[in-house]
Structure formats: C-alpha cells, structure tokens
Design brief:
This protein has about 350 residues and is of the alpha/beta class. The chain folds into 2 domains: about 240 residues, 3-Layer(aba) Sandwich (QueA-like); about 90 residues, Thrombin, subunit H (Beta Barrel). It is about 20% helix and about 30% strand. Strands 2-1-17-16-14-3-12-13-15 form a 9-stranded mixed sheet. The chain has a 6-stranded antiparallel beta barrel with strand order 5-6-7-10-9-8. A hairpin with a 5-residue loop joins strand 5 and strand 6. The radius of gyration is 21 Å and the shape is globular.
Length: about 350
C-alpha cells in the first residue's frame, strides 16, 4: 500500500512562478541521471548538448482552448463565469459554471470578451450534477466551436498563477509553439520551454521530433482525496498517437536512440498505446492510465517535465519514473536552489 502522505513536500509560495521567462529557453533545467544518481544544473537552451543522434523527442501538440468564459446573466445582470469542457458535435457545450443566485433552464448569458466587449449569448439548456451545465451558443451556423471560443474566451490560467487573472500575453505564453490540435483546457507545460530556434537546433543534432496528442482536461486539477493512492480513480483524457509516429519511434529505437517524452502528458500517450505484447501501436481513444508504484515503463527512456504539485498524480508518475529517493532529493535541491515551480516554472530532465 502506498500512502498519499509520502508524496507531500513543503514549497515556499514565492517559488511558484507567476510569469514565464522572457525567453522560454532561458528557464533552468535540472538534469537527473538515474544511473549515477547525480544532479546537474543547466538551462533549457543547453538541451541540444544532452541529446544524441537517433534520439526521438516526443511532443504533445495539443492546443489550449480559450476555455474560460465570463459574462453576465441577461435577466439579472449578475456576474457569471464558466469553463468550457467539451462539445457534443451538435452545437451543444458542456461547461462548469459559477454564479450567484440560481440560474434556470432557458436563461441566457451575455458573454464578454477579454477586451470587455459583448460577444454572443449562451442559452442554458440543461443542468447537470456538480456545477455542470449543457449550454447552447447562439452563434451563426457557419461558426464552429473553436472559432467561437477564440472570439469570446479567455486563457484558462490556473488559479495559482496571479489568482487565475489572465493577461493578454497569456494567449501566447500559455501555448506551446508547436500547438496544432485544439482541445486542451490546460497547457502541457514542459513543452512551453521550446522556441522555434531551439527546435531547429535539436533537429540539426540528428534528433527526430515526433508528435502525439493528449487533450489535457479538467481532471488534471482534481486532487487525490484518498490516502491509499491505489484507491484513486484516475480521470479520463483523449489521447492520439498515429501510425507514422509509432514507426518513427520504432525506427529511432532500432538505431539505438532514446524515446524522450516531453511532459507527463506525452508519457501518458506513449504508455497507453502499448499493446499487451509490449509493443507500441497506433492509438486514438480515451485513457485513464494512472502511473504509480509498481508500474514498469515500456516505451519511455527519458522524461523532461516541470516541477509538480505535492500529492499529485503527476508527482507520483515522476517519482516512479526517476526513482523515489532520487526524485525526492531532486525536489529538495530544487527548493534549496530556488527553482521556479509549476506551469511557468523551470524544468527537469530525467535520463
């Protein structure tokens, strides 16, 4: 039995990064070697020197939606907030909402853009459990969900960054430079460190860049509420790895290269796509894989990741991959050395 309390640690609040580095690649990079147990302090811009010919860098190309919705109840003028969760393909959205009073079915919301203009109305169609509603966006028939969200949505900055208050710069800063598949409501934060110039340098090293997709959902923020982590019910997210990416990874491995996952989301895709015979295969579906002791990794050889919350499923995954005592020590050193934590923070490379 593994206790949740084993994954707790004390983090000074001033180490929670509130803004990204001006140059993404200037973030610090702690390099943790599992074979030697050593810890080295570099920067993300040094990454090309740590990679080898035939390595494969696996990047999550999900794109963060402008998923936070703000407006007023048409009937009362009361403030209303919502978070877009998903759409059903029939012009209905599922949203998590927060407002004063008791909204009713049929009521409308006047959505406001981040510039303070009125965008369009939402009609409340059906109330669900736990603060969720099904809503209908009153938009033109030729406008799709993604463009409607771009028009009125706000960047869903986590509450530990400036109390969740969005800045205009977050539209760019809270998005990877390789984001191309809309669907996430939180960024795959390890990928935020890359610039086009850094990616080009990596390619010139003879390293292959390989895309996968995992749309980070609201469940990523769900805390573990049980003491035995074996009892935790993992959230479900949609993951995709195409045949071309599978072939790329297999070719790199055959040539002696490593599969290096950028972010825990990339790990989830890769490990979810392993068949019963242990071979990686194309995958397009949902996963609720919870990587915890005594999990054995089947595809991932190295991991680049940010520093994660205490008692989180992500920290549990990272400790399982890097070795429990070594990653404990790495986090203690990161605090001593005043690394920047969480979404806009620094990174760790476990090799």
């Amino acid at each position: 039995m593994t206790q949740l309390s084993d994954y707790d640690y004390n983090l000074p609040t001033e180490l929670i990064a509130q803004y990204p580095m001006r140059n993404r690649a200037d973030a610090r990079l702690m390099v943790v070697c599992r074979e030697t147990g050593t810890i080295e302090h570099l920067h993300v811009r040094d990454l090309p020197s740590l990679l080898r010919v035939n390595d494969c860098l696996v990047l999550n190309n999900t794109k963060v939606l402008q998923a936070r919705l703000c407006g007023k109840r048409t009937k009362t003028g009361g403030h209303w907030e919502g978070l877009f969760i998903e759409h059903d393909g029939h012009r209905l959205w599922k949203v998590m909402t927060k407002t004063r009073g008791t909204p009713t079915v049929g009521e409308t919301i006047d959505l406001e853009t981040s510039e303070g203009r009125v965008g369009f109305k939402l009609e409340l169609a059906a109330k669900m459990d736990n603060g969720y509603w099904v809503v209908k966006p009153l938009i033109d028939d030729d406008e799709d969900t993604w463009s409607a969200l771009e028009r009125v949505g706000w960047t869903p900055i986590p509450p530990y960054i400036r109390g969740g208050k969005m800045l205009p710069s977050d539209r760019e800063n809270y998005q990877t430079v390789f984001a191309s598949k809309p669907g996430a409501i939180a960024a795959p934060t390890a990928g935020l460190h890359f610039t086009p110039q850094l990616l080009q340098q990596i390619r010139e090293q003879g390293v292959t860049l390989c895309p996968v997709t995992l749309h980070v959902g609201v469940g990523t923020f769900k805390p573990i509420s049980v003491e035995r982590i074996e009892d935790h019910v993992m959230h479900i997210e949609h993951a995709v790895i195409k045949e071309k990416s599978v072939e790329t990874i297999q070719r790199c491995k055959q040539a002696g290269g490593r599969t290096i996952a950028v972010g825990t989301t990339s790990v989830r895709v890769l490990e979810s796509a392993v068949a019963r015979d242990g071979q990686l295969q194309p995958f397009d579906g949902t996963t609720n894989l919870f990587i915890r002791p005594p999990y054995n990794f089947k595809t991932v050889d190295a991991l680049m990741t940010n520093f994660h919350f205490p008692k989180s499923t992500l920290l549990i995954m990272v400790r399982q991959f890097g070795g429990d005592e070594l990653i404990r020590a790495a986090y203690e050193e990161a605090i001593r050395e005043q690394y920047r934590f969480f979404s806009f923070g620094d990174a760790m490379l476990i090799v």
